[in-house]
Amino acid sequence: MKVREVLGRGDYALISGLIPEGARVLDLGCGDGALLAWLRENKRVEGRGIELKPELAQRAASRGVPVYHGDLESSLGEYPDQAFDYVILSQTLQELRRPLDVLEQMLRIGRHAIVAFPNFGHWRVRWSHLWSGRAPKTRLFPHDWHSSPNIHFLTVLDFEETVAGRGWKVERRLFLSGHSQIRFAPNWRAEIAVYLIRR
Length: 199
Description:
This protein is α/β, with parallel strands linked by helices. 34% of the residues lie in helices and 25% in strands.
């Protein structure tokens, strides 16, 4: 099944489809604020973001997105319980130093958490590693080992195991390969996984 794109990205389309009109949304690692700006305009959400890189935080602010410039790993403790309906972490989980702490905080400050991450179990990643004998490089993972922002190499199975082990509930699982949503063998076939979870 083909996935329409939002702002040129299929994962943004899947994420936006999970968020209802008028929700209170916090986007962690919001980048230039493009997704939040789109959600505010198209779904009238009350949105804010956290972004570490000053140039991206500045671009988000110039879009009119309320953004906190800082490290999300050290700032989430300042938010009260259930302050948001949805907390988004998109394409950032694998770059965090303490990903489990961040997931716990997301589920504390939000009623629902949306987590999107690249699946390192995808067959192209496996093939690249097996064939080259080097750190995998693919279209989604173009970095050399020494310059990659990724420090955790999780798969769909890893995330499922973590969620089950923590007793969290999966409300939706969505998987993307290229421009298509896939329904079976996601650990092998999905390039990107999008989860909607709650306590």
